[in-house]
Amino acid sequence: MKKTFVLVVLFILPLVAYLFFASGVNNFGKLPVLTEEVLNAPENADNITFENKITILGFLGYNVELKKGNAFNLNQKIYKPFYEFNDFQIVMIMPIGTEEKVEELKAELGNLVDIKNWNFIFTEDERIEAVFNSLKTNLSLDESLGTHYVFIIDKDKNLRGRTNDEEETTKYGFNATSVAELNNKMEDDVKIILAEYRLALKKNNADRTN
């Protein structure tokens, strides 16, 4: 009996506590708004917009082949778990002239999963810079108008991130070269924002029925 009690104290109670607090963060946390009113997606033939969508926003730049690894990491670690949500999408803002390289990339991504919610918008260099600058981060585009970082944009076109990150304090974006960062941070944050909207939807539906 004594041995059983010791095992419970040492192993079971810490596990229960962990699950309780982990559940609390995911279900009741709210991802902070870091920048309001990010510029909307540039005009495009497919009518892709940030409005009413949870968007993972990225900039691959002219050197698409050098950032293919970023796209594959995102595809596996962020897109695959969430792409079946109708209000979830990945949007890459691309320079005009990269269309052929993007078609090759899409074909490779499509071998792994249905890429229906992967979107690429081709626009002028100035528009790419304008959208990026509207994020108001401490990051910058490289000389090819690309970055390894990707960003979470909510349905109201606000940039979401972390204000108490253990490494960066304010975390504006997630480094897509790092599988660990996508796994340990970004996936959790996407879960939180999806849960936030699901809870709001349930509340609105409940209010209507009362």
Structure summary:
This protein has about 210 residues and is of the alpha+beta class.
Give a structural overview:
With 210 residues, this protein is α+β, with helices and mostly antiparallel strands. It has a single domain, classed as Glutaredoxin. 45% of the residues lie in helices and 18% in strands. It has five helices and nine strands.
Task: Give the helix/strand layout.
Blueprint lengths: L1 H27 L4 E3 L18 E5 L9 H15 L5 E8 L3 H12 L7 E6 L1 H10 L14 E5 L5 E2 L1 E4 L3 E3 L2 E2 L3 H31 L1
Instruction: Supply the CATH superfamily name.
Output: Glutaredoxin
- Structural class by SSE content: alpha+beta
Radius of gyration: 20 Å
Our count of domains comes out at: 1
Mean pLDDT: 87
Main sheet attributes: strand count, strand direction, barrel closure: 7 strands, mixed
Uncertain segments of ≥5 residues (pLDDT<50)?
4-11, 13-28
Helix content: 40-55%
Distance between the termini: 51 Å
Return the CATH class: Alpha Beta
SSE sequence, one letter per element: HEEHEHEHEEEEEH
Percentage of residues in DSSP E strands: 15-25%
CATH topology: Glutaredoxin
CATH architecture identity: 3-Layer(aba) Sandwich
What is the number of helices? Answer: 5
Q: What labels would you give this structure?
A:
45% helix; 18% strand; globular
